[in-house]
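Work Package 3 (structural annotation) set out to generate three-dimensional models for the target panel prioritized at the project kickoff. During this period the team completed the workflow that converts sequence records into discrete structure tokens, so that structures can be stored uniformly alongside our sequence database. As a representative example, we reproduce one entry of 407 residues exactly as it appears in the project archive.
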Amino acid sequence: MLPKLLAPAGNMDKLIMAVKYGADEIYFAGKTMGMRAGSKNFSNKDLENGVEYCHKHGRKSNITVNITPHNDDLKGFEDYIRYLEKIGTDALIVADPGVIEIIKQTAPEMRIHLSTQANTTNYYSANFWYKQGVNRIVLARELTFIEIEEIIKNSPKDLEFETFVHGAMCMSHSGRCLLSSFMTGRHSNKGDCAQPCRWKYHVVEEKRPGEYYPIVENDEGTFIFNSKDMCLVEHMQRFVDLGVKAVKIEGRMKSEYYTAIAVRSYRNALDETLIPQEQRNTQYWKEELEKASHRDFTYGFYFGNPYKDGQLYTSSSYIRTYDVVGIIKSYNKDTNTAIVEQRNKFSEGDILECFGPKGKHFEVKAINIRDEKGNKIESAPHAQQIVQIDVLAEVEPYYILRKKVEE
């Protein structure tokens, strides 16, 4: 069996995109207890709609309650758990043993997935958590393939393991970082990290206050804590062979476009492990991931400690080579007309790329752009403007149009 593909959703639009592009399980959060407070997240009604949408399309819903809570954070938590159980939540992602205890007492049938925040790096810990009622463990990101194999071999057969394969990495061990709370008062372990690891730094000598010595590689400075992004799309066969239950994409705060690109690439790369090596499009899926906003890629710790090769020392900026310009809302194959919701400006004559969940992208020339009433226009400059364009190839709702960023 292939590992399940687990995708992030920071809001309902991203959840729909993750489902449309092939994720097996979606993880998202309510307004409390989740590790991404900067994401809009889901109101209670949105949670209900999200779970329902997942189930309607045969997917699983995993709700995060994985902050490191203080006493006040747990007030009313039992009621929240009862609500999540009532709406049909498939599993809760948890990091704290106290939270696990509350879930077991309040909703004993609820599946519990242990968050990567719990730092599981050995099979003794895995066996301990299994005895506490944990069904799946999201392993720490600081493990090699060899270590993961050893953990799986020395753990109960019905204990599931999940591993991260794509997205931003933390400079601290599995996200256990205090920089943000110390420097800004925003608590990273309560989901509100300000990412000070991405900032520029200078050195000050004790007896020379006010004299700042830049730690520089170039004119922009050196970003000494700034990690590269993880990308393992080339190595899906390794995860299949290991027998992990799920592979996970990071990025609840990223865009709908990122969600589509990441899920599409890993969905196809996973499915292609079922066909001969020479028929796979592995390099293409890697190149597609490079067309979403990203930092330089690394394999993380899977092949051993990356040391300096896992860090970015010259910039904390993202690499962005393409902009999404529109999302297909509907298509009339009799008139070859696509209704498009604009995301970034595009103009008559622009060469665009179009893609959907399956297959490779294809080019579309923006011709005969019209507004909603059918009036000819030269460009679509307004956010979420509804326009019509001619598309000769048959497309479907949620196909995406993108444009190469001009250098």
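Residues 322-404 form a domain with the Elongation Factor Tu (Ef-tu); domain 3 fold (CATH 2.40.30.10).
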